[in-house]
Amino acid sequence: MADIQIEVKLTSSGPTKLLFDGAVQTRSSTNQTDQVQITNRKITANLQRSSVQSAPLAAHNSTFFKLIIKSLALYYTLARKPARIRTICWRKIAASGATTEFPVEKSEIVQIVGRKTDLSLLTQIVQAKAELLMEETDRGRAVLYAITHLIKALDSDGPFERFDRLWRAFNALYKAFSGKTKDTDCHIDLANDIRANPIRYPLSVAKVTPLTKDEIRKHTRWNLMLQNNYPTPKRTKNLRDAIVRTADSRIIEIYRDTLSIRETLLKAEGGYNAASTHIGAMLATPQVNHSDVVTTLCIKYMYFVRNKIAHAERTDSGFAFLRGSAEEAEISWLTPMLEALIIDLINISDTF
After folding, report:
1. What whole-number distance in Å separates Cα of residue 150 and Cα of residue 163?
2. For a surface tag, which of 118, 146, 216, 246 has the fewest beta carbons within 10 Å of its beta carbon?
3. Percent of the chain with pLDDT over 90
4. Would you say which domain of life the source belongs to (predicted)?
5. What is the pLDDT of residues 326-351, one digit of tens each?
């Protein structure tokens, strides 16, 4: 059994501050753990291995590589500063105490974030929930994947790249939350929980609270979303169901103003009367239901936006030759709400 030490030094000013110190499970199939300590200046991991590959940091499914990724993700989440990686080195320590060092060449080190990346958003993540990324469990992997994509989203050059990475973070979390494989099933489970337990999603609710109906219409392509999502009578059953489970007057008013776009298909499906009756009843006694706005914008509408990008149903964003285009404005407006929901999910990930 060989004693191994991995050390990653980072640029940081000020006194040394302990961020994390604990045992980290190496693989889900074993009870073996590694001891990891993270300060604002460096990451140190002490391991024991029966054997070591010739290039353990570059090998497929390397526990060394995975441990460094986990530690860096937790470091940036807790330090919240774009520190540079100065050195990476691993050491093999013999029973006699003799140490053999294997430093990584500086030219081979790729920086995780830029010098000016703003990581202040990460202050909203509860530390105990962030630490779950060290687990070798389904929820631990979901938090790890989500946080790495979230950090790289904050480091992104443009709004479309940022949104794409945020959606990947969101995808990892809602699948772990639901435990199902189909996006639609996961979305339904998450939407139901947001409506039933809005107190679990404080950041998301706070983001949508000040929104008005006019602001939502201004920043969304609602008509196009209805045309895209409900192209047939059979599919408009989902539109009827979406309307009937909505109570918030802002969303209800938007459905009222746009229902004519799918009126013919709704009547063919037999759901028009139920939809229009519900709209009338809700407008007669207007209600504020922020959960409806969160689920409608962050799940239903943003999934439509994400699919347009991911499935190449629009031109590449790199061809937007003017700053401040309508699509860029839409993405920039949506992004803070998606970030809030991602952090809310991380902060309840211990319940997954």
Report:
1. 10
2. 118
3. 85
4. Bacteria
5. 889 999 999 999 999 999 999 999 99
